[in-house]
């Protein structure tokens, strides 16, 4: 029954894909703006519903709604520039054919909603926007933690499609919480790519399904990480208080429910680290207990905290205000560099407001930890220019381990700009080469096609001789903006 | 023992990767030009050796050598432009961080040599050149069909590296023909991507290995296809002779040992098709028996031909001059559209100079065949403008099935230009999103890294404020070539 249902939906989605394939870049952008308008027009019912389903504060949800609308608009504008067409033209010459290449949509895409951003990484979130931006229809699988929010968003998308005059099949919706549904969707032969944000377990399972299909497909799973913060001597000595306030602020923001939550803090042991620990204790004591996204998440959080508590050479430094079975309590633990190197449980993500401070014996141990680190979304440095100059090799090697390097800031807060890379080496994601935030997220759903000696009038507009779309192209090896 | 050997080699390659990471774009380009010079300087011994090992004609090998040198140079020049850095800069603003992104090398790459292009798709071929262009060291696994050729090429690469002053570890070499060696290489945790050109069986096995690793890695296998040629009524009626000559020329070029060999020819049954068949028979009768790359390939070819002969509704139309156990005989078979649709063996690639003509009952059947087609490197149209106008939907849908669409030409001949896409949907390759020919081949081995609020002096040159490399960048959402 699941298969029949999925089959019907994916067939609709194929029709939606065919429709999108016939739109010009400007038309696709206009369609996306129509969806943005419809999402923007949703009233307080959306915010209230999401608040009830996710326990996220109203102000945060209001902000996330704005971000979601902004994503549609910024991706639409990026699409209209033609940058993602990556048009390349090599004109015919002596013994040479005329060869022209552009990027087109890869086919219908399955998108799985995340629970921690019920707007921006769910139904009308960045994955849906970037897939449609690429000219791909979307089959969306709702997240069971916020079905009502999801349906309101799906209605807005349908409204946007209708107001533009596009068929509903551009965006189809799958309800239900069973794994069988998601599995059938990923395995359907007409689905050509998958986007997911969530747990390692879930993301890796989808990746494995995608790879084992008769026709393997790309599965973009963003699975989070511990986002280490490395503090260097000069900086730490000068700013223990400020750094502690920043760290605890970032660690507990949104009840610690960000993929980029800085779960691990590392520095060389010593006086400065002692001062930092004192400041961290003071800061965390003020953090109120808070409701997490759903029961399952709090259970996993309490389990993760409990597991940390039981590890040798790990001690509890301080906690936030007292928690309950339904309200999460923040906590910070301390361990040694040696223990962190030998006990792999210590580098597992605890999704929620819990941090682990790692006291390294010396700089060499910190280098060693960096080299042993698995892939991360972000790595943050608390450092002065002198620190950087003294540890240049450390900074260089850190690039191998993450998607984004931050200097004296905190990793929560992922701006929706061209320069953003929200991704990173496995196990942070299943494909280090693509971002899920920023207009470049569109690239995940494109593939190139070349045309050889093709009649000009039948070429896609992106490749026609007269450059009717006025887009940047590489013509005979030279960048040209006509 | 295999594992120890591979481990030592991959550790060397890691050092080579670290070295490359420290080179500027211009330095990397200069290193590639040094390798190009060293390959170019190889004397007739190379051509003679390759001729002995591959049976390919001397003139063809001379041409392939030039192509190989040209690849290094064109990729080097592309690298120097900074196009593959894809630099994006979003400057700090009110409440906004400074975020800058560029592409860097993914890590050490394993490259497997192909037998059918002992220069251009082997040791110093496009995969090696594009990986080094991306800043990735290469561990090269020789193809057992041309070990002496391969070693001469490896020596040239070593010479090029030495003349530039780069360490040998940038390119390391693995001998031997056992599958265990290749397997150990792909499974080594320090290897971050794999490139392969060859059979479906081999390419898919490597892909599966890459996906099942603890850390999955991208495996780019180019596995060939039947490269269908669709002939349309007006064109076929007007040009049966010319088309037959072109088709047989392309089918038998280089003893049919090209990935883009047009194995299947389709048109609607009728008078024009009859005239075409007569012309094909006359053409193929003139084709001499010829030596294939190695014994294994001829065996597989004879087996494939034999298998076709035994299929119901398939008949032999004509053959080339008589073959032997060591010389391949060209052949053309005929079948119906109906048989082609129902018997999957008929769309299997026969690597060598054998073609299958498919007589479709009507245009609808040809459409149906297109929709059922698996992924191809190329699809070719023999058509007039009127034909295209009448079958617009056919041409549009053909994009879903291949990487390159040709109009009134033949697919053999893959030019090394920006506009080339040598790739295509599975099973033509394991990743439709990347090409293995043309400067864009470099993209396979890159991944992005973002820098947030980073001190200008410590940024990679690609991202520094003053744009010291003078490369095109997207700054605050606008394309800029400073």
TrEMBL record, chains A, B:
Source superkingdom: Bacteria
Matches recorded under Gene3D superfamilies: Aldehyde Dehydrogenase, Chain A, domain 1, Aldehyde Dehydrogenase, Chain A, domain 2
GO molecular function: oxidoreductase activity, acting on the aldehyde or oxo group of donors, NAD or NADP as acceptor
Residue ranges of domain Aldehyde dehydrogenase in the record: 4-417
UniProt-listed Pfam families: Aldedh
InterPro entries (alphabetical): Ald_DH/histidinol_DH (IPR016161), Ald_DH_C (IPR016163), Ald_DH_N (IPR016162), Aldehyde_DH_dom (IPR015590), Aldehyde_DH_Superfamily (IPR050740), ALDH_KGSADH (IPR044151)
Record-linked PANTHER family: ALDEHYDE DEHYDROGENASE-RELATED (PTHR43353:SF3), SUCCINATE-SEMIALDEHYDE DEHYDROGENASE, MITOCHONDRIAL (PTHR43353)
Protein name as annotated: NADP-dependent aldehyde dehydrogenase
Organism: Sphingobacterium psychroaquaticum
Highest classification ranks of the organism: Bacteria, Pseudomonadati, Bacteroidota, Sphingobacteriia, Sphingobacteriales
């Amino acid at each position: 029954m699941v298969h029949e249902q999925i089959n019907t939906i994916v067939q609709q989605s194929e029709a939606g894909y065919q429709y999108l394939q016939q739109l010009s870049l400007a038309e696709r952008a206009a369609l996306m703006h129509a969806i943005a308008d419809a999402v923007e027009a949703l009233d307080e019912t959306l915010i209230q519903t999401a608040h009830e389903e996710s326990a996220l504060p109203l102000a945060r949800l209001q902000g996330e709604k704005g971000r979601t609308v902004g994503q549609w608009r910024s991706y639409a504008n990026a699409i209209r520039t033609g940058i993602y067409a990556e048009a390349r033209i090599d004109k015919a010459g002596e013994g040479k054919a005329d060869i022209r290449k552009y990027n087109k949509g890869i086919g219908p895409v399955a998108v799985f909603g995340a629970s921690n951003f019920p707007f921006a990484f769910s139904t009308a979130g960045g994955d849906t926007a970037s897939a449609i931006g690429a000219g791909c229809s979307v089959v969306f699988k709702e997240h069971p933690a916020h079905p009502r929010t999801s349906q309101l968003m799906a209605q807005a998308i349908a409204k946007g499609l209708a107001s533009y005059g596009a068929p509903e099949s551009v965006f189809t919706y799958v309800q239900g919480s069973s794994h069988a549904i998601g599995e059938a969707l990923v395995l359907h032969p007409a689905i050509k790519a998958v986007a997911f944000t969530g747990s390692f377990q879930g993301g890796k399972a989808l990746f494995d399904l995608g790879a084992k299909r008769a026709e393997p497909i790309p599965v973009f799973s963003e699975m989070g990480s511990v986002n280490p913060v490395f503090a260097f001597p000069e900086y730490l000595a000068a700013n223990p208080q400020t750094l502690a306030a920043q760290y605890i602020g970032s660690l507990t923001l949104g009840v610690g429910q960000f993929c980029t939550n800085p779960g691990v803090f590392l520095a060389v042991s010593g006086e400065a680290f002692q001062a930092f620990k004192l400041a961290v204790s003071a800061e965390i004591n003020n953090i109120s207990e808070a409701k997490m996204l759903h029961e399952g998440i709090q259970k996993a959080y309490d389990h993760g905290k409990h597991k940390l508590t039981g590890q040798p050479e790990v001690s509890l430094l301080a906690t936030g205000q007292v928690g309950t079975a339904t309200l999460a309590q923040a906590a910070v633990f301390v361990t040694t560099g040696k223990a962190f190197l030998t006990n792999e449980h210590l580098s597992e993500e605890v999704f929620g407001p819990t941090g682990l401070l790692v006291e390294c014996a010396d700089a060499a141990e910190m280098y060693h930890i960096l080299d042993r680190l698995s892939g991360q979304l972000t790595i943050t440095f608390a450092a002065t220019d002198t620190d950087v100059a003294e540890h240049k090799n450390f900074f260089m090697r850190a690039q191998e381990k993450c998607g984004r390097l931050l200097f004296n800031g905190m990793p929560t807060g992922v701006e929706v700009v061209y320069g953003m890379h929200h991704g990173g080496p496995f196990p942070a994601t299943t494909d280090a080469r693509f971002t899920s935030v920023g207009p470049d997220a569109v690239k995940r759903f494109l593939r190139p096609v070349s045309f050889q000696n093709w009649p000009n009038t039948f070429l896609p507009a992106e490749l026609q001789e007269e450059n009717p779309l006025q887009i940047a192209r590489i013509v005979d090896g030279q960048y040209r903006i006509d």
